[in-house]
Amino acid sequence: MGGVLSAFVRSPTTRDRTPNLTSLLLLPRAQASAAGGLVLAVLLGCRGPSIPADSEELAPGVWHHAVHLIEGPWAIHVVEVDLEQAWAAGVRLQTARARNDESGVSKTSELAAGALAAINGDFFFGTPSRSSGLQIHAGELMEEPQPRSAFAITETGRPLAGVFAMRAGLITKSGHVLVVSHLNRKPRASDELTYYNRYATADSVRAPVGFFLQSLDSVCTVINDTVSARVMQVRRQVWPLKLGARQWLVAGGADFAQSHTISPGDTVQLYTMLPPADEVLREAIGGGPRIVRDGVPSIEHEQESLSASFATDRHPRTAIGFSRDEKRLFLVTVDGRQPGHSVGMSLEELAHLMSTQLQLFTTSRTSAHQAINLDGGGQTTMVVREQVVNRPSDPTGERSVVNALLVIMPSGRAEG
Question: Over 70: is that where the pLDDT of 1 sits?
Fold first, then answer.
């Protein structure tokens, strides 16, 4: 058994000399059975041995780990980010959205052009496709939150996971607060207010009444913040409008103008709060459900209106989580639907990987204290240095997605 045990201990030498668990598949049946038991013992939390990983440092504070476990079998890829070290070196997280064409989708590898690494993002629906939940890019809201879990990162690099809500409003010149209910869609009631930003398609910016705002502040964001703006125009006819950076259209129903007076030239304030977050958010991407809460597996599919079979069946999976001290971030993919290579995981198995097993092969020797599931199945994709490193489940390869989460350097190109 000593020879088998040595196969699980991390090699102190270079990446090329690190042993690979796939070699254990070649052991005689008795030894393989013993090795399988050892795999299970290691995975269930023994903190002494390590699971050998094919690891590479991509940038200061950023590593890619590839692990193959015979117990599933499971093929696992993890991008680990030391948020303090990486942030100091200029590394950032950034969401990217697919091109705004008839399909609304692009491949993760296309969205990740120039990035250090990337994973696919949120679920999506419709034609052209739209993400099912929250997305923030460069401090601006692209999609409003839904009652499912999302991941966010603040301006200072602090990670958050939660079910976010939107509380938006317009403060008039007289100080009256008008509630704004939704983003980038027209009002559905005569007295409802919504607002559009530059991420709305031009032909969708239509409303019976609209207040065209130009920011008076230098920043674009209104997320967990308030910006001052000037009313440039009051629109009382339905026609398209293309918005630029630091511009918004607050849109009202047909009867709205009868109860409130807003005039061109007025200085107003626009705010959008995303509780439970109370800091300015830089980036965010939706998913669901929550799978790890406070270090313990917590499969919250019922609370987030997802089916039991979605949780219990084995599928390719994508997940994101971070450590208890909020200093380590983990982007994870698990291949699936490929017998002999990787069978996929249930959400319970994925939660166990995130909360218990990461510490056995990550650089920090820590696991996730909080974690959420992202879109998976045929969409599960990890890109490292513009190469797809996992094995997507479709015979035709990588599927297109609506958005992705990128790890970038300042010189990297990543368009939203």
Answer: no
Section 151-163 average pLDDT: 97
Backbone φ, ψ for residue 384 (5° rounding): -130, 120
Over residues 43-71, the pLDDT tens digits come to 444 445 689 999 999 999 999 999 999 99
Phi, psi dihedral angles at 357 (to 5 degrees)? -90, -25
How far from the centroid of its chain's Cα atoms is residue 69's Cα?
25
The residue among 97, 96, 67, 95 whose CA lies nearest residue 79 is 67
Q: What is the pLDDT of residue 370?
A: 99
Cis peptide before 73 (omega within 30 of 0): yes
- For 31, 100, 136, 322, the CA distances from 274, given in Å and listed in that order, are 54, 25, 11, 20
What is the rounded CA–CA span in Å between residue 386 and residue 84? 24
DSSP label of 17: G
Which among 293, 382, 285 has a CA at the least distance from the CA of 342? 382
Q: Quote the CA–CA distance of 291 and 349 in Å, as a whole number.
A: 10
